Amino acid sequence: MMKIEAIIQPSRFESVKDSLLEIGVEGMTVTEVRGHGRQKGHTEVYRGREYTVDLLPKVKLEVVLPDQLVNRAVDAILKSAKTGKIGDGKIFLSRVEDAIRIRNEERGESAL
Amino acid sequence: MKRMGIVWCSLLTLMLLAGPLLAQQAPATSSTATPSASTSSPELPPAVAEKLNQLEGKVTAAQYSADNAWMLVSAALVLMMTGPGLALFYGGLVRQKNVLAIMMQSFLLMALITVLWALVGYSLCFGGSGPFIGDFHMALLRGVGAVPNADYAATIPQSTFMVYQLMFAIITPALITGATAERMKFSGTVLFMTLWFLVVYAPMAHMVWGKGGFLNASAGGRFPTLDFAGGTVVHVTSGVSALVCALYLGKRAGYPKQPMPPHSLVLSFVGACLLWVGWFGFNAGSALASNGLASSAFVATHFGAAAAAIGWCLAEWIKNGKPSALGAISGAVAGLVAITPAAGFVAPFPALAIGFIAGIFCFWMVTKFKSIFGYDDALDAFGVHGAGGTIGALLTGACAQMVINPIFGDGKAVGGLDGHWGQIGNQFVGVLIAWALATAGTIVILKVVDVTTGLRVTEEQEVEGLDITQHGEEGYNLES
Question: Which of chain A's residues have a Cβ under 8 Å away from the Cβ of B366?
């Protein structure tokens, strides 16, 4: 069981979501976040005062998947999230110990 | 039906009495033709003379109705400039945590000044005929009713004139809140505004517009200052007082290092558009009648705003590489400020010129001048109203023309374009007095408020925001 955490461009979110649903991913958690990596922010000017905005809006998408689905999911995200420009985001993978469905207390992969 | 009847009667009277006059000058009928009715020629049979007198009364009544309708609408338009116009314009420019506080200050003034106006304000501005301030003979609105006050507006009920002028007294102190934004206590604001209205606004309004006022251009002032709708009375006084407040209060915590961008330019945008529309009531309404002068002022107002929006945008585009929405709306407001004293004296093309110059000048004031001196005029009340009002008042002296408004009498030159360049000197005196009165008055009032209620919130309160600390609420509870 692994968790995929993908931080992507907000403009790519819809196509990433669709590509994941296509390969059989059933659930996901999505958060609007702000941050930056190597991409520098931009400047805004209000009545002559310049502000550097270095935290840019991104979308963070989290899915926990059974091991056999992880590689296909990563491929799907890579294909649909890439614009080729700086600022496309990152994918983090981590192992998940256990999962519990709150409704019926199922555990492990069947809880996903 | 009744109105139709009045119109028919008026037409009939005019055709009977003013046939020869009409042939020469159709639009001037109502003013030139009606007086001759009272001197009705003796050869007419008494029944006809009687009928004519009745008709004359009806024509006058029709004019009164028309003027009153326009002036009531104008009064409502000017109130709309403060709420929601200015409240939205300023509300969008502050940070999210102060949005209600700044809107509340505008709204407070709508209520507070109204009460003061009824008690003594109207009388202090328009009562009596002293050179510097009115008197108390119309305190508690004594004698203010349906009968016109011929000293000011002979064709509308005095209550209309009174309520129209009240709307100016409301927006003027509201403009100052742009400089004290995000750090002044609510209690201090209430006390400051009360005193400021009595000490600065009332004398200035009387000097410029009141009968016998020192600067009054149409009623025997020592230095006749042309100020059609309040360039000195409204914008110079509030703008200069705003600068004094900004200097006295000091900078907001974190200024200028910490970014303080406007939290919603959408609100500001809507507010600025409402200001533009409301300004037609402010300037065209200042003709105090629904006449040709009102149309002329309406046109000048609109042209001034348009040219200033372009001026500011162009300057910004050249300087920063991008024309911004905030720049466009700030420019329009600057143009409206500058055209305010000029509106009833200038032709459309000089109006465009005044607007364009004001747009560029105010852009320079808020971007360059402010950063050189480093004061924290949070929402640029001085940069737009003080600066725009001053340049507008001076340019009025240059651009005023007797063909638009022969205010000094028929055939007498009015402004520079008529060859009377000395008028710029009179304008300068008016501006100087407005600057001096605003500066001195505001310093004294600030001292008084400082030792009584206090002026500034504590630094912790400032960081938390005025909405919560002063009013116990928040502008946006998006998750509730």
Answer: 47-48
Domain match, B251 and B348 both: yes
Nearest-by-CA chain B residue for A54: B259
Q: Is A49 on the interface with B (CB under 8 A)?
A: yes
Q: What angle do CA B285, B277, B147 make, to 5 degrees?
A: 25
Is residue B31 located within the same domain as residue B115?
A: no
* Of the partner residues A48, A51, A52, the one whose CB lies closest to the CB of residue B366: A48
Least-confidence region, from A30-39, B285-294, B363-372: A30-39
Contacts of A48 in chain B (CB under 8 A): 320, 363, 366-368, 370-371
B424 and B304, same structural domain? Answer: yes
- Place B36 in a pLDDT band, splitting at 50, 70 and 90: very low
- pLDDT tens digits, residue range A75-104? 999 999 999 888 899 999 999 999 999 999
Q: Taking the domains of chain A in order of start, what are their residue ranges?
A: 2-111
Which tokens go with B467? 């909405």
Cis ω on the peptide bond leading into residue B84 (within 30° of 0)?
yes
- ipTM score for this prediction: 0.77
Give the gap in angstroms from C-alpha A45 to the nearest C-alpha of chain B.
Answer: 8
CATH class, domain A2-111, is alpha beta
What CATH number should be reported for the domain holding residue B118? 1.10.3430.10
pLDDT by residue (tens digit) across B187-213? 999 999 999 999 999 999 999 999 999
Which residue of chain A is at minimal alpha-carbon distance from B366? A47
- Distances, alpha carbon B370 to alpha carbons B296, B324, B330, B343, B361, in Å: 35, 19, 15, 28, 12
Range of the domain at B25: 2-59
Quick check: is B66 in a domain? no
- Same domain for B367 and B451, yes or no, is yes
- Which pLDDT belongs to residue A40? 74
Closest partner CB to B324 (pick from A45, A51, A52): A45
Report yes or no: A39 and A49 within 8 Å, Cβ to Cβ: no
- In B117-201, alpha helices (H): 122-126, 158-180, 186-196
